[in-house]
Amino acid sequence: MAEQDLGSAAFVFGNDAKVGDINVKGNVVGRDLTIEAQGVDRREQLLDVLTALRAQVQALKEAPAGQQQSALDELANARAAGERQDDSQLVEGLESARSVLERIGLAVPAAITLAQAIATLIQRVPGLS
User: Fold this and answer.
1) How many separate domains does the chain show?
2) Which partner from 25, 33, 37, 54 sits 20 to 30 angstroms from 117, CA to CA?
3) Do 129 and 44 meet the contact criterion of CB atoms below 8 Å apart?
4) Residue 10 DSSP label
5) For 48-82, what is each residue's pLDDT tens digit?
6) Does residue 54 lie in a domain region?
7) Taking the CA atoms of the chain, what radius of gyration do you get in angstroms?
8) H/E segment holding residue 77
9) How far is CA 38 from CA 42, 44, 102, in A?
10) Is residue 103 part of a domain?
11) Is residue 10 part of a domain?
């Protein structure tokens, strides 16, 4: 039997395999979780994105409760720092929230998308107007 390059395949089916119904439960990235962080260049936009991120984290129903609360707390701290224009504390809060969301992502993969959005926001902080 010849070996195949599977790349990043999540599922591999042999020849003539058939798949019945597939049900996707929970949050689906792109459908339920959409955060646009690329175009953020003003502090007001960043604060709006942080509000949206908190709502998305709250929507992660399958997330471990303690980790979910930690992520929410860190995002609240980051938002407060952003309102005070304290960029070092803003970045610290964002980095902490990103780290917690990456851990949540082990149980709820949709959290990884939120962590990636936060990583993008961290890169945007130095250029905020």
Assistant:
1) 1
2) 25
3) no
4) S
5) 889 999 999 999 999 999 999 999 999 999 999 99
6) yes
7) 18
8) helix 65-83
9) 12, 14, 19
10) yes
11) no
